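chain below, 333 aa
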Amino acid sequence: MTHSNPIAWFAILMPLLFSSLLQARTVLQSASCIGSMASRYSTRTVGAPNTLEYRVFLENKSGDVVSPFHDIPLYANPEKTVLNFVVEVPRWTNAKLEISKSEDFNPIKQDTKKGNLRFVRNFFPWKGYMWNYGAFPQTWEDPTHSHPDTKAKGDNDPLDVCEIGEHVGYVGQVKQVKVLGTMALLDEGETDWKVIVIDINDPLASKLNDIEDVEKHLPGLLRGSNEWFKYYKIPDGKPENTFAFNGEAKNAKYANQIVQECHEAWEKLISGKIPFKTDEYDIKVSNSNVDDSPYKVSKDDAVYKGVPVDSRQPPASIDPSIDKWFFIGQPNL
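prediction:
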């Protein structure tokens, strides 16, 4: 075949061109879907940070209240390669914030113990949380199910997530992330997965696709994460935590399987196939848009009307002792 036969060249090039255009359209559609998801949510803040009254509810673009536990989709694209992640605790901060299981529409609030606000203590060389810390929506670690690999039951929470990108998030932010791996903390005898993810808009996102990429491009981060979870309770007088798999971080394939398992457990919970209240747990399941859920409520419902209006206030001062830096006498620290 020579270049003097344009019809032959046209026959060869057109399928290639069409395939390229089709792939480009798919990428653009997926990016458009993800982009719209990123701007879909805002926060409705009640009270002042660092107080017992502080709550962060989530709203959709119409200003309607949604549950960060139940209403936000787990997956942000049809291929299920990009996931939505709710920031509970921004990196470098100390307040122990979490999605409430005991209040309608599951606002983010500060955890308490004996009526006192809880803070994570600083211990060398870390200040507060070392990642953007939060949870995957529409996931649940079933406390009645013992995982075959960890031999321990779930901790009754949404899946915990450590987002390792460079941008510091804010409370209630919904980020789009991809899964890189997971650790399995054994917290007081319960399985407490810690899924490692990266914001898809992070400069390193294209280079991080599995757990070994984290060690290559962010050397020391996995070891530091392991040590943080192992020792962070010691300043409060508690023993160090332990891990399944000898502390090894499992790869992205394994982590995605865990995410899917916890999503399926949540689906059983929100659809009423298993009870939301037993002797072991009690979870608020009111939601705005889970169509097959018997717990879906309208804006006319008393539960929905009971959500307070935005009344955000400046942060309250905290005890200076929260800034204390602890040095833990471990030979490998």
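The CA atoms of residues 11 and 296 lie 55 Å apart. The domain at 41-326 is CATH 3.90.80.10 (Inorganic Pyrophosphatase).
thats it, cya
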